[in-house]
TrEMBL record:
Domain of life (superkingdom): Bacteria
Catalytic activity: [glutamine synthetase]-O(4)-(5'-adenylyl)-L-tyrosine + phosphate = [glutamine synthetase]-L-tyrosine + ADP; [glutamine synthetase]-L-tyrosine + ATP = [glutamine synthetase]-O(4)-(5'-adenylyl)-L-tyrosine + diphosphate
Record-level Gene Ontology MF annotations: [glutamate-ammonia-ligase] adenylyltransferase activity; [glutamine synthetase]-adenylyl-L-tyrosine phosphorylase activity; ligase activity
The keyword NADP is assigned to this record: no
InterPro entries assigned: GlnE, GlnE_rpt_dom, NT_sf, PII_UdlTrfase/GS_AdlTrfase
Protein name per UniProt: Bifunctional glutamine synthetase adenylyltransferase/adenylyl-removing enzyme
Location of region: Adenylyl transferase: 450-940
Enzyme class: transferase
Described function: Involved in the regulation of glutamine synthetase GlnA, a key enzyme in the process to assimilate ammonia. When cellular nitrogen levels are high, the C-terminal adenylyl transferase (AT) inactivates GlnA by covalent transfer of an adenylyl group from ATP to specific tyrosine residue of GlnA, thus reducing its activity. Conversely, when nitrogen levels are low, the N-terminal adenylyl removase (AR) activates GlnA by removing the adenylyl group by phosphorolysis, increasing its activity.
Location of region: Adenylyl removase: 1-440
Key word Transferase present: yes
Glutamate-ammonia ligase adenylyltransferase repeated domain mapped to chain residues: 42-277, 549-792
Gene3D superfamilies tied to this protein: 1.20.120.1510, Beta Polymerase, domain 2, Nucleotidyltransferases domain 2
Amino acid sequence: MSIHATSSHSALAPLIERGLSRLRAASPQAAALLEDAAFAARVAKVLLASDFALETLRRQPALLDVFAHDDGATSFAPPALQAGEASGWPEQLRLYRAAESTRLVWRDVLGLDDVDAILAGSTRLAEACLQLGLEALETEFAQRHGLVRAADGTAQRLVVFGLGKLGGGELNFSSDIDLVYAYPQGGESDGARALAAEDYFARLGQRLARLLDEPTVDGFCHRVDLRLRPFGNAGRVALSFAGMDQYFQREGRDWERYAWLKARTVAGDIEAGEQWLHSLRPFVYRRYLDFTALDGLRDMKAAIAAEVARRELADDIKRGPGGIREIEFLAQALQLIRGGRDAMLRERRLLPALRALMETRQITAEDGEALIDAYRFLRKLENRLQMLRDAQTHALPEDPLDRTRIAQGLQYADWDALVAALEVKRARVAAEFNELLAPREHHVVPGALAQYWRALPASGDAGVLAGSGFADAAGADASLRDFAQSMGVTGLSDGARARLDRVLPALLEAAAHSSQPDAALKRLLLLLRAILRRTSYLALLDEQPSALDRLVDVVARSALLAERLALYPLLLDELLDTRVGGPMPVRAEMRRECEAALQEDDPEIALRLLNERRLALSFRIALAALDGRQPASDSTRQLAWLAEEVVRVVLAMVRAEVVAAHGSVADGRFAVIGYGSLGGEELGFGSDLDLVFLYDAGSAAISDGARPLEAGRWYARLAQKLVALLGAVSGAGRLYDVDVRLRPDGAKGLLVSSLASYREYQLTRAWIWEHQALVRARAVAGDASLLAEFEEIRAATLSQPRDALELRGKICDMRVKMRAELDRTDAARFDLKQGAGGLVDLEFLVQYLVLRESGTHAALLAPRDTQSLILALESTGAFDQAQAASLRRVHAWFVAQGLICTLDRRQRLLAESDALVEARAVVEEAVRARGLSFEPPLAS
């Protein structure tokens, strides 16, 4: 149908006048109200837009009085459906629905409410009618058949799920309502005429549908569509929750994930329904980024396009190109892809979903606002099309008079002006939707490597690999042949194999052009073996060329990240996370991410979720370090923050567990102290955590639970569980290895020290090396007051007066012994950490000066990290400005080189270079200038 302008303005005045005349004739009161010219003009606008409103006002003229007084600002009260008067229920519901719908027309046409409010009002109206009808029918059924009892004897109710726009709270004016019926358990009703639960709830649901749907002399209430239930029209009208579970586990299809994304319990046992919907979430939202959702979307789009072509629906603003469905599908596809990882995207309502997609940067703010604007435009137009005659239509009218009425009612000069505005909106929507489905076309790899892969394992020339840049072409050829004939590949479904045949040639091409082709290929094949059974990951690489290219770049440059990706493929998601290239997570964001695990009731799920968050955040930090987007010291600090937040969350978990088993210790306190790189906020990738535990409680304190423990044992149990849980292996690996050997008296000492014994030990019995360790020690978790008292003990210990000569001798002796045992420097390579002039020499120098000067310079007590300690020592005069700057620069270089080695799984052994020679010279000069010698004495 071609859209063209038709002038029908001359017909509008008679149409409006006829409508006003009919209203005047409806009742004397209506005639009196219409004597007011201003009010009559408002009524005329409504009559222009809606024949349905005219008919309702004619049949219920008292509504005019309501609108004259408050412009329909208040919803009408629903009717009371009396038991025993079932014959009157249809009329009551239909008159109520007509009156409330006319109120919505009035509010919309006169510009008193925006389209969002009208959609919400239509939704509330449908819910009210559903709930009124169901409650009335339940009373009737209970009298006739009794109640269906659960196994524990409690009465069961029907659960009514609203799908589509009803579930999303965005019902259009004359929409049908998509319902699915369920019930919690099987069983039988307890009345004189007992029914099995299946029959009872099926009959109840059918009666509810007829009560709302069947036309009477008063029209209909709501059209009911039950075709979205399991197995469609062939399925049972109502299923138990167990039957629903079984269906979705075995039969659930991609399009149903889109349908159930919006599902909401709208009537009946709402609490039970919402609990069941929570259990359905893994079907709707997969744990990983799920680009297989696009397959379902393509299938649905193709079916809709065929329907549009077959039925000539190009001018259908819902199903046609650039229509409402495309906005809905675009948002829902992005939600399904990422909603398993980002709870913010699990949103039933479309506009909040689009805003969440904007906030998480899955769509740009500009695109998101354009889609929101187009959606509101289309929904307002859709409502006006339906308000005209209460018809479930989405097609632009062909009648010239209807066109003029719609255009003028929407404040457009004529039909052409409205259509011009509409086409702008639809073009923008269509462009965005088509872009979502376009990426697959980018994966055509026509080169020799693609032909080589597709010839395997039967043939294929290894010379192609050599010519493409692989140094060990024979080894690469053998690995690829082995992979091609592995069970993982030969057992793939046709669809998954087709994806692999697109993905692997693209990976080969990218690896060939990477910095390390052979290493990249070896690492990529390990990853592919790990993800072959998870088609969502193949889909990710197939659909997103940017992820594929990023993957190859990362694995070529980092053996550590390649290993982590192979072990935990969920990290592939991070390659597509738009936050990866943006600002790094701040401490508060890390806290929120980690504390989300505390919302889970199941300890295993909570631990897995916490570990997944830790893996994802550390992966982001690693990518920033690999790309050089931030200084290495920032990365080590962020890793320490992340570890601290993990410890805090795990402590909360184990504290709840110990309290549940043994009760609480009244006025007891517990603290976790981080030593080493955790305390100094210089944690590396894969570093263990040096932890010390303190407690404080009354000497006779015992816990108040069913199995009480005295305080020392209670806190020892708490610390043991904390260490165990940090090291427990879950599906996402272990959180951290923990080292507790720095506690007082080392391995011979108690796992948890009382505050008093810790104070006494540090002030009277600790070795100098333990005071060195205390320089970097920092309170990381536990009771705030005890953490503060630890800080007081630390300050008192570090600021003790010391004999400088004795201190220097002990420091040097310790360093000489360490170097003799740990330095791996050889003729070709230098041990970055333990070698002469290396990182530990610099740390010993700083710690010596802090212990020597803290008694007179309190400023040395606050910092823990080496960079800040050097600055503090400069402020005391221990270093001059130039020395401090040189030492900080050298320290930063050491840390950066260490991270580079760790990221590529290399030992921290460096080949000789000018930069290394210069760095060592700076450290060795500073050590000598302070009278220290870390070299073993010469043999006589």
